[in-house]
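Appendix B.2, paired examples.
Example (i):
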Amino acid sequence: MDKKNVIVRWSTCAPYLLSALRIVAAFLLVQFGTAKLFAFPAAIMPGGGTAALASLPGVAGVLEAFGGALILVGLFTRPVAFLLSGEMAFVYFIGHAPRGFWPVVNNGHPAVLFCFVWLYLSAAGAGPWSLDARLRKRSRAL
């Protein structure tokens, strides 16, 4: 097998790797949301409790848990990813940037990475392993 065939064959995996990126990133985000809302899998709020729903961490927890769940299954991926991208930018600039410039120092690196992953998904879509793809295929069949 020559090098060109290997490259062409590997590039055909891109849509499936997009779906894998979406699934793994959403699974990680859901954990941030459930930790804020339900102290599961661990309590991350100051004092060890849960966030009040009417607070900024509570709203963030709702967006992360339920928006992350929608992205995990690939439903309404583009608009939800765009919303979550904005939320992650807000989280970074409100919660992390005031503690210093470097994301690794201010612990903002997850927010930055999530922001750009969600921004990418808002443009690229959910990929073939998603409810969005299944619904699109079903609507074409009708």
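Example (ii):
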Amino acid sequence: MELIVGSDEIFSFESKGFVELPGIFTEKELTRLKDSIESTLEKRYDASKEKFYRFKPKEWYLKSRDLFRDSSDIRRVLLNGKLGKVSAQLIHQRPLRLAADQWLFGGEPLPFRNNLMKSFPFQGTLMGAIICLGGDNSISQDKEEGAPSLFFSKEPGHVVLFKGGLPLDFAEDYTPPACCNYLTIVIAKQKSIYTLQENDPCTHHLKNLGFGFGDRLNDVEHPYLIR
């Protein structure tokens, strides 16, 4: 079924810079995404999900960038066309690239600064999407809930889409709600460039794939969400 964003949602995105949408992913797709993320993190952290949820690896943020590169299931869910179609309807632009993903622990401080453009190392960032993955009911959450933020829904499966330059509504070292975990998606235009971003702890990450600052993102390492 063709995904159509309503006029109210488009108006909210254009006027406020963000919109929260349910239904982009089915319950089956959300479960597949969450399970695949957890299995990928188990390999990267070399620890069971029970252990890393409870004790949080010290360098968790550094090891949680671009999970789609290590999992064909994550890649399939993100690139099945639905997120791309919704994003294109909101931003009125295509093609759109998957520039990066970043998994976020609920209840842990974030290194985000100012806005999405100043938190990731890309020239050409158009917008972001933060997918609420819900929590793990088998793991007790002993931290206080984070302060409210329009960027972090507490409804599993809901996606908050926002403009790349929209100012973040939280201070430095903000802690998102402990009840949920999240996957941030960075969406960029076709001709985007890898740049130094000192705010991003993972700014040198792409050098492991042979990129240098000033290189264009390519179709292999940064596939299209929609053409």
